[in-house]
Amino acid sequence: MKFGILINEGPFTHQASDTAYHFTKAALEKGHEVPRVFFYYDGVNNANKLSEPQADDRNLVKLWGELAAEKDVDLVVCVAAGMRRGIKDENLADGFRISGLGQLVEAGMGCDRLMMFGD
Amino acid sequence: MAEYDFDTEGVKKTFTFMNRKAPYGTVYALEVLETVLISAAFEQHANIVFADDGVYQLKAGHDTAGIGMKNFSPTFGIIEMEKEDADEDEDIDMVWRIIVEKESMEARGLTEDDFKVDVEVLSAAELADIVDASDCVISG
Amino acid sequence: MLHTVNKSPFERNSLDTCLRLAKKGSAILLIEDGVIGAVKGTVESAKLEGAVGNHPVFVLGPDLKARGLSEDQVIDGIKVVDYAGFVDLAEEHGAHNAWL
After folding, report:
1. Is A78 assigned a catalytic role?
2. In chain B, which residues have their Cβ closer than 8 Å to the Cβ of C51?
């Protein structure tokens, strides 16, 4: 099965990105595909390379980037939501790309399930 | 990472956009509407649903001058126009419904006359069936 | 349809709205702070005690544990699943409807 993932909140303040990450990992371990993860609203903050959590805490920005590299997951940051929140090419973390909202609709159309994680 | 190449030729899905929050206290209302408009470009079917405090998004007479925020309610006029164009044009296969949950509307002392656009008012039971039949749900 | 509720019934009306708008027979999974709704012996327990007759109801185990809640505190009829189980529910029950 193909799962599309939509993440509406940034790392740390809400659990949404954590839950989405664990779901995504579990889906991939079961042999499903996760072709695209779309970051919208404050979810764009998951792509901020300047994020520096404490050393003994999880680093979701890095975790998503590593998952993208290992499992070829397309991590997309919404350009409009990103602009509003200061996520641009110059501070975009490894593994992410910036694109339009159409990429979310396309994921909804092309995947078997669109899973949403927010506040 | 490379852009994933989806094959969406001929795909027609029904998206439910579930709006449950009042406008302006949070941004969810506005950013869901942006997604609604993008879905028109893909000619997908949409249920644009207003429940709980989401009904206040549709209320006529938003005046945001005092809070210094952009009044996004004109977007509903655009959505209504997209819907009407799709309804009237036989070449467009796109069914959009603008739905208000009756229980939420009545709990807040509102009627259909309070809204900026024409809506379908459905009971929770009717709405449950419609939402259950949709392919994707995006909430704001 | 798979409905998830991620907020406690003490905090928000998301569980109420979910139960009002979830078609009978559709699945409900409590996640994140929503797991609090699955606990026995609270003033909110009746909501899900009533729902288990109409829906298969599940709760995410790791979120219970994180909040110091144990499986034997879960309302009878609610099944505990892990993230792999969450994926299975999504596969089995169709479109995802996240009540936030």
Report:
1. yes
2. none
**pLDDT tens digit sequence for A52-66:** 999 999 999 999 999
**Under an 8 A CB cutoff, do B132 and C26 touch?**
yes
Which one from A20, A73, A78, A107 is the annotated catalytic residue? Answer: A78
Q: Is B42 on the interface with A (CB under 8 A)?
A: yes
Q: What is the mean pLDDT of residues A66-94?
A: 97
Residue in the block written with tokens 């090419």: A89
Contact at CB, A32 and C31, closer than 8 angstroms: no
Count of alpha carbons within 13 angstroms of residue B87, beta-carbon side: 10
pTM for the structure as a whole: 0.97
The DSSP code sequence of chain A is -EEEEEE-S-TTTSSHHHHHHHHHHHHHHTT-EEEEEEE-GGGGGGGBTT----TTS--HHHHHHHHHHHHT-EEEEEHHHHHHHT--GGGBPTTEEEE-THHHHHHHHHSSEEEEE--
* H-type alpha helices, chain B: 28-41, 74-88, 102-107, 124-132
Shortest Cα–Cα distance, A5 to chain C (Å): 11
Cα–Cα distances (Å) from C84 to A6, A55, C29, C91, in that order, read 18, 28, 13, 11
Count of Cβ atoms closer than 10 Å to residue C85 Cβ:
16
Whether complex ipTM tops 0.95? yes
At residue B140, the pLDDT reads: 81
Chain-chain contact of C83 with A115 (C-beta, under 8 angstroms): no
| DSSP state letter for C17 | H
Looking at the complex, report in whole angstroms how far the Cα of residue C32 sits from the nearest Cα belonging to chain A.
7
